[in-house]
Amino acid sequence: MAVIHPTSVVDEGANLAEDVHVGPHCYVGPHATLGRGCRLISHVAILGRTTLGEHNTLWPHATLGAQPQDLKYHGEETQLHIGNHNQFRENVTIHLGTENGGGVTRIGNDNLIMVAAHVAHDCCIGDHVVIANASLLAGHVHVQDHAVISGATAIQHYVTIGQYAYIAGMTRVVQDAPPFMVVEGNPARVRGVNTIGLERHRFDPQTVERLKEAHRRLYRGDEQPSLAVMGEHIARLETDYPEDECLTLLTAFLKNMAGGFYGRYREAARADNRRRATPR
Questions:
Q1: Percent of the chain having pLDDT more than 90?
Q2: Dist. CA 82–CA 127, nearest whole Å
């Protein structure tokens, strides 16, 4: 049976696997489900309709499943779904979803979410993602697999962070961050290809060189290219590299981004969207 420290409170409605370990001064609410091998080290709160998969570790003062900080939320039965083998370090906060965002906040597998990071309502985090200390994700942010978000980064609502993207520390992200790229600054700009990350994941060197060529075409000069110029470069990349999967993912991402509002392609599809006149 689960090991529960005598100073902790686990509601009788909670569903705990037999080998769950609940350390001192924790609280597990009546609608929580904790899978095999989960470990709550101490002073952890699991609230709301929160489901954890297997072998997740929650460090002191992590709070999962609290109500969203959204004035449109009025107690609806929304959820937080978490996969397997995640690490939630000290003072991490992750909130339930809202009806406006589909009702579920989702965290995948094998992620590391570091000290004092915040993941807001309706966010969707993929697999093998690193979110470093004191980073803030607003509502409805999507982070694709293998992305790295460095410390003290702030990400605006409805932003999408592409796979294998690297967001440098203290970056203000208000537009989608393309896959395979390094994004840095205030406001954020694409600075280059995430060469180190791609090499660590053993990407084909030829693909890395093609991504560098794509970056040179798309982001040459000091000014952000116009949508028209960007479209021309994307079309040429699709023609020049039709069989490169990474280039295909990059160009598809950029086309979606160009078609969205304010450089955030999912902004245009938000449920409470009031029709904007033109994208900015």
A1: 89
A2: 11
